[in-house]
Amino acid sequence: MDDGVDILMMASTTTMKSFVSKTSSSSALRNTKKSSSSKRVFSVRAKAGQSEMGTPFSTWVLQQEMKDNIDNEHAIVLQSISVACKQIASLVQRAGLAGMTGLAGEQNVQGEDQKKLDVISNDVFCDTLRLSGRTGVIASEEEDVPVAVEETYGGNYVCVFDPLDGSSNIDAAVSTGSIWGIYAGDSQCVPDFSSESPAEVEAKCVQNVCQPGENLVSAGYCMYSSSTILVISVGDGVFGFTLDSAVGEFIMTHERIQIPKSGKIYSFNEGNYDMWTPGLKQYMDSLKTGGKETGTKPYSARYIGSLVGDFHRTMLYGGIYGYPGDAKNPTGKLRLLYECAPMSFLAEQAGGAGSDGTGRVLKINPEKVHQRVPFFTGSVEEVAYLESFMK
Ligand code: FDP
């Protein structure tokens, strides 16, 4: 039996076991955050130092709750996001067959053409989060302003997301992904629908959303590629789960991902080279003669042009991904809130770095919802080397 089959069988068995135990104990787990029996089961497992590979995502989320890494509401938000990702994965896979490729005929607030699937994926994400009843404010790349979730307000969490990043690739069936970040809401800033005007509610939503990345309580992405992979951190390492379509569940396939400290792969849109600063050009030229170990093998170029795919490869193989500012767009292309901050959170949790070229992205205080920043991420040593050319 090859490794792939092995993993699938292990995953399916674990899923069945978890299903059986979940049907008898899931409500108890939700309502009694740390019942003594659930604590005991978890600590036995932890003491045994067992690998968590093969754990279904829903079980892992409950374990994070038992470990006190997240609370009950946060757990529900994460489960909802995993459902949204499964739905989007299925839509992406069927896009060509179901007539969902091409433009929707509208532009978003940033002046970008919206693809049909951008609009549909946004609806999927928004609806799933709304129905979870645990998110108070949501902000999407595809929406002009952050939205307070009126129907269920009372949810503590603020979710920022890009429902379908890299969607210019979709018609060619190249990888795309969803990216999200979750913040705790600002308790001083709860919108009151009964007494406040829409403008006042909106101002409070913006304030809830514009938090620095270091306030993130969790972040993740889901990549829609040859397989569908959900990668997440709740502040205690980074874990990857592959969708097992036979059982409809994400199964852990990557435990505590660590970005290699260095790596000889660079991922930049070099077509913009002429518009870069002299320092950045010098950096790029140096990679072609071995980087800081001048005279050694040149770096390899890999650029999909889809952030989630490029970032995922960088996490696993090391190296550097960059989208710098240039003469035409001094702050680059990528958005701070729902691209750079969540990816930086993941990179740091995996022992890597996320920088705007001068310092940590997670330190930046957003001034507006769709703010763009130059972005460099990946292996710590590679990001530090890049920064040495940007002073
Ligand atoms: P897209 O426009 O297809 O949605 O931020 C969006 C993004 O893709 C990233 O996913 C991707 O890395 C980048 O833009 C690609 O930009 P360039 O085409 O300028 O290289």
TrEMBL record:
Q: Give this protein's Gene Ontology molecular function annotations.
A: fructose 1,6-bisphosphate 1-phosphatase activity; metal ion binding
Pathway(s) of this molecule? Carbohydrate biosynthesis; Calvin cycle
Q: Tell me the ranges covered by the Fructose-1-6-bisphosphatase class 1 C-terminal domain, including all copies.
A: 259-391
Q: InterPro entries, from UniProt? A: FBPase_C_dom, FBPase_class-1, FBPase_N, FBPtase, Fructose_bisphosphatase_AS
Q: EC number(s)? A: 3.1.3.11
Top-level taxon of origin? Eukaryota
Cofactor(s) demanded = Mg(2+)
Protein family per UniProt = Belongs to the FBPase class 1 family.
Q: What is this protein called?
A: fructose-bisphosphatase
